[in-house]
Amino acid sequence: MKTRMTELFGIEHPIMCGGMMWLAKPQLCAAISNAGALGNLTAGNYDSAAEFRDALQETRGLTDKPFCVNITLMPSVRITKELHLDYFQVCCEEKVAALEISGAPLDRYLGPDYIVEAKKAGIKLVHKVGAVRHALHAEKAGYDAVIAAGIEEGGHPLDDDVTTMVLTPRISESVSIPVITAGGIADGRGLAAALVLGGDGVMMASRFVATEECLAHENIKRELVSRQEFDTTLICRTIELQMRCLKNAIAAHVLEIEAGKGTFDDILPYMIGSRSRESWETGDADMAPLAVGQSIGLIKEIKSCREVVEGMVTEAEGILQKARAL
Which of 192, 254, 264, 320 is 20 to 30 A removed from 242 (C-alpha atoms)? Predict the structure, then answer.
């Protein structure tokens, strides 16, 4: 299955992993890349340039295939602008295959010169967007591809609240660069749909949580398998930091604070990264907002990354062949 996405990254299958705080680490990243897709190493997992560089080198020791790095340019207590800059410089020095930027555009957050610097290092730049206007900006700024992320996605979807089904064709008809679909994708049906809608491949994260190679606690993986598509909720809308997460005790409490006109400072103690890190590690699914998307309703079992990737491609190819025969 060859698309503009596979050609851009030099990968076998048009599937990539999204950024996942505390989970997208060398072991998972390499497993996805070794399966022929594009693994993801999330820079925010690391507290210094040295730690991040070590993680890059560890990943390269586990795979000789291309992988991308996620840098999320959003407000954070722990990750400063200086640390974001360190991540970027290390990526350029190490000449990573691709950078997946989410949140603020790289050219606006650090400056347009950093687009030029990434290009000189041979890095493919991809920006995750939730609106046509943002995709147009990314293309003009020099990004190599965009990710059309619908409201179904876990994490921080744009508050335009446009679904993947509408967003993918709108963006694909508006830009000339490759478009990667995200939000609600977990199997070959989603991959086939993305290609029919004008996308060049898919990005997913929640599905890769429920894999053998993911470092999430087994209790959390089983929790995702048992949940349905309606078991996520949107929190932090009132403080303009919308987040889709698993319905649990903490999410319910945050919504109560918001309903009571609580402030950012009232909500912050429940959103700090150390809580989610502990939750993923200990298996306590109620102690933190866990960023997962509506695609959890499509996750039926825990598989290896290779089984997930190859199964998706086989299923998608079968669906597309049947469609051509109609």
Answer: 192
Instruction: Please answer whether residues 201 and 17 qualify as being in contact, where contact means their C-beta atoms are separated by less than 8 angstroms.
Output: no
Q: Is the pTM of this model over 0.90?
A: yes
* Single-letter amino acid code for the residue at 289: P
Predicted local distance difference test score (pLDDT) of residue 294: 98
DSSP readout, 252-269? HHHHHHHHTT--HHHHGG
Contacts of 308 (CB under 8 A, 6+ apart): 35, 207, 208, 211
Please provide the size of the chain in residues: 326
DSSP string, 138-162: HHHHT-SEEEEE-TTSSB---TT--
**Which residues in 142-164 are b (16+ Cβ under 10 Å) and which e?**
ebbbbbbbbbbbbbbbbeeebeb
Q: pLDDT digits over 128-165, tens only?
A: 999 999 999 999 999 999 999 999 999 999 999 999 99
Return the CATH number of 4-216+312-325, one of 3.30.2010.10, 3.20.20.70, 3.40.50.10490, 3.30.1130.10.
Answer: 3.20.20.70
- Rounded CA-CA distance 217/287 in Å is 14
What distance in Å separates the CA atoms of residue 181 and residue 203, rounded to the nearest whole number? 6
Query: How big is the chain by its Cα radius of gyration, in Å?
Result: 18
Q: Where in the chain is the domain with CATH 3.20.20.70?
A: 4-216+312-325
Please tell me the predicted confidence (pLDDT) of residue 32. 98
Task: For 166-225, write each residue's pLDDT tens digit.
Answer: 999 999 999 999 999 999 999 999 999 999 999 999 999 999 999 999 999 999 999 999
What is the Cα–Cα distance from 311 to 295, expressed in whole angstroms?
Answer: 16
